[in-house]
Amino acid sequence: MIKVRLRSIRKARGLSQEELARRVNTTKGTISNYENGYSTPSNEMLLKLADELHTTTDYLLGRIDDPNVKINENTSETEYADLKEVLNKKRAHWGGRELTEEERKLIQRIIQAAIEREESATHTE
């Protein structure tokens, strides 16, 4: 299951084997071996892969089907992030690609305009 899920989410996040390997401090060959079922990642590597791919170890292991679910370790409840906080951070990603500061600010303006438009429409009804 890991080999299928790892390849699928890596591609969905727009990462090459080489780029993923660099991010988790291993080699392209190691990632290839995982994806072809020749070897399996250690528990430590599985955690690194899940973190870097913005998913959970449960998804990679086939225990859940939604790769986008993040679980709060403290409460076992689905965690929701404040998008404004995320976009204000120095690093935010979209599909595995890091957004520039300019892109993050543009997204904030678009969201703010949509909220203001909705609030305005709600108040005029």
How would you sum up this structure, described in words?
This protein starts with a helix and ends with a helix. It is built from 7 helices and 2 strands; from the N terminus they run H-H-H-H-H-H-E-E-H. A two-stranded antiparallel ribbon has the order 1-2. It has 125 residues and is mainly alpha-helical. Strand 1 and strand 2 form a beta hairpin. It has 2 domains: 60 residues, 434 Repressor (Amino-terminal Domain); 42 residues. The mean pLDDT is 83. Keywords: DNA-binding. This is Helix-turn-helix transcriptional regulator. InterPro entries: Cro/C1-type_HTH (IPR001387), Lambda_DNA-bd_dom_sf (IPR010982). It comes from Polycladomyces zharkentensis. It holds the Pfam family HTH_3.
Question: What's this model, at a glance?
Answer:
Helices cover 57% and strands 3% of the residues.
Features:
125 residues; mainly alpha; 434 Repressor (Amino-terminal Domain); 2 domains; two-stranded antiparallel sheet; 7 helices; 2 strands; 3% strand; Helix-turn-helix transcriptional regulator; Lambda_DNA-bd_dom_sf; Cro/C1-type_HTH; DNA-binding
Major sheet: 2 strands, antiparallel
For this structure, the CATH topology of the largest domain is: 434 Repressor (Amino-terminal Domain)
Class computed from helices, strands and strand pairing: mainly alpha
Distance between the termini: 52 Å
The succession of helices and strands, N to C, reads HHHHHHEEH
Radius of gyration from CA coordinates: 18 Å
Query: How do the strands of the widest beta sheet line up side by side?
Result: 1-2
Task: Name the helicity range.
Answer: 55-70%
Number of domains: 2
CATH architecture of the largest domain: Orthogonal Bundle
Assign the CATH superfamily of the largest domain. lambda repressor-like DNA-binding domains
Mean pLDDT: 83
The geometry reads as elongated
CATH class of the largest domain: Mainly Alpha
Number of helices: 7
Extract low-pLDDT stretches. none
How many beta-strand segments?
2
Domain HTH cro/C1-type: 6-60
Keywords: DNA-binding
Protein name: Helix-turn-helix transcriptional regulator
